[in-house]
Design goal:
two-stranded antiparallel sheet; 1 helix; about 10% strand
């Protein structure tokens, strides 16, 4: 019972924080892409589309490839 109450309070506090202080949130249409079989030396391109569904400015500061 104490654990349930504790986690409920934490969840409420996080929800309150997110609603009052607004945070960015990034949502991708897709998070990976498979090019399939590719010939050596081919140039490949894919666009990952995303949207900020949060309530404040989303700043993208560092992008790395995998």
């Amino acid at each position: 019972m104490k654990n349930t109450l504790f986690f409920s309070i934490i969840a409420a506090a996080l929800l309150f924080h997110a609603t009052c202080f607004g945070e960015p949130r990034i949502d991708f249409n897709e998070t990976s892409h498979n090019f399939g079989a590719v010939r050596a030396g081919s140039t490949l391109k894919h666009i990952f589309r995303f949207r900020n569904t949060g309530s404040s400015t989303l700043k993208i500061e560092k992008v790395e490839t995998g």
